[in-house]
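tool=predict chain=A
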Amino acid sequence: MDNLKDVYIDQLQDLYSANRQALRVVDELAKAATSTALRAALERGVAGIKDGAQHLEALIRDKDANPNAEHCKGMEGLVREAKAHALNAEFGADAARDAVIITQYQRMGHYAIAGYGCAAAFAKQLGLADDAATLRDMLDAAHSGDKTMTEIAEQTINQRAA
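tool=predict ok
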């Protein structure tokens, strides 16, 4: 990578890979959730991740680059953790599993927040105003999903799991 544009494209590709990996496990988390509110929030998360992947693919193709040129090892690890701790672990109480599902989802979401924030800053520096606006919208959506998960945890799940 020779310049910020190269870094920017690489980061878009990494985010695209991250979204595609997260999509599968978030769908599994939604199916495993027992709280109706949590399941609905996760299903909205799945839709948001799909939307994000489509936007990222368009941004990458607009730069004449291959969306699949990168494999996000960071998200690979987070997905592996989500499966181990939320899906494959044994739980005595459904609310305890739901609490872990929120934890794992938020960890993946925070990875996305960091990625979108950096990519938006790169786009702004490169004078790519439309890209920056798209990425800021995606960042806002990720923040909103994180806030929703915190509210669900604090208002119901954590109390039930206690």
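Residues 129-161 form the longest helix (33 residues). The chain is about 85% helix and 0% strand.
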